Design the sequence.
């Protein structure tokens, strides 16, 4: 039994591909909607999101999971950390699928940074209406920074109740919460940046979805702060579906 950690569009495609290759697949996701999409991808069952690494250890033992595929966001969150700890504890093979990094254009409007703190500082210098396309993770870094005093923060997030509530609890006005389901085209991004009169765009290097945001911003002559990925300590990384399948076959052999 293979467990896929759901968190991206590619996760659903990987579930379908692994299932079609003859391996039974379980899935887990942090949101109910993510779990629904994982089920549509072909997972035989969607497990509740683990509360911590110990909870995931128990699920792996109970379900007889023999390999874990991490297909969460390129910027790893708690689910990835739980999986790394659980797999290391139980000596279960673990592979992380991550989109290839974005090749940034050589343009003075693009400002790469290596941390959330640096992103806050750069965005504060570049404009007064700051449009965050970074989701809800680390939103506190912006909202709670003294550098944001007098600035308008607009955030685009996944349209899920828990995430919207987090934004409201942090004090964001409903008019500054853009709850939409991507992916978004360059044309759509351009229109929404214009509609909110953004002065600066903040994004993460999430791979292929980052490109349309950058193109839209540059078309509008808007500066873009790009938070680069940290170097991963994972030994088993894959940036293609074929690499994931090869890892599975190398560790589990051909399906029965």
Sequence:
């Amino acid at each position: 039994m293979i467990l896929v950690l759901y968190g991206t569009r590619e996760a659903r495609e990987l579930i379908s591909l692994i299932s079609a290759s003859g391996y039974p697949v379980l899935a887990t996701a942090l949101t109910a909607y993510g779990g629904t999409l994982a089920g549509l991808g072909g997972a035989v069952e969607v497990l509740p999101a683990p509360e911590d690494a110990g909870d995931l250890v128990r699920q792996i033992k109970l379900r007889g999971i023999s390999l874990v595929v991490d297909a969460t966001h390129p910027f790893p969150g708690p689910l990835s950390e739980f999986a790394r700890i659980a797999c290391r504890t139980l000596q279960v093979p673990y592979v992380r699928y991550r989109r290839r990094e974005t090749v940034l254009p050589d343009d003075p409007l693009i400002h790469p940074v290596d941390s959330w703190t640096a992103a806050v500082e750069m965005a504060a210098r570049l404009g007064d209406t700051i449009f965050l396309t970074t989701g809800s993770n680390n939103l506190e870094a912006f909202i709670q920074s003294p550098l944001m005093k007098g600035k308008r923060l607009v955030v685009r997030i996944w349209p899920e109740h828990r995430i919207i509530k987090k934004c409201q609890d942090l004090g964001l006005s409903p008019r500054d919460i853009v709850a939409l389901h991507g992916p978004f085209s360059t044309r759509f991004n351009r229109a929404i940046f214009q509609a909110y009169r953004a002065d600066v765009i903040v994004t993460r290097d999430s791979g292929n979805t980052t490109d349309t945001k950058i193109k839209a911003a540059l078309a509008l002559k808007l500066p873009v702060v790009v938070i680069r990925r940290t170097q991963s300590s994972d030994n088993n990384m894959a940036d293609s579906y074929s690499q994931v399948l090869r890892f599975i076959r190398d560790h589990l052999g051909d399906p029965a």
Observations:
- The mean pLDDT is 90.
- The radius of gyration is 19 Å.
- The longest strand covers residues 152-157.
- Residues 78-90 form the longest helix (13 residues).
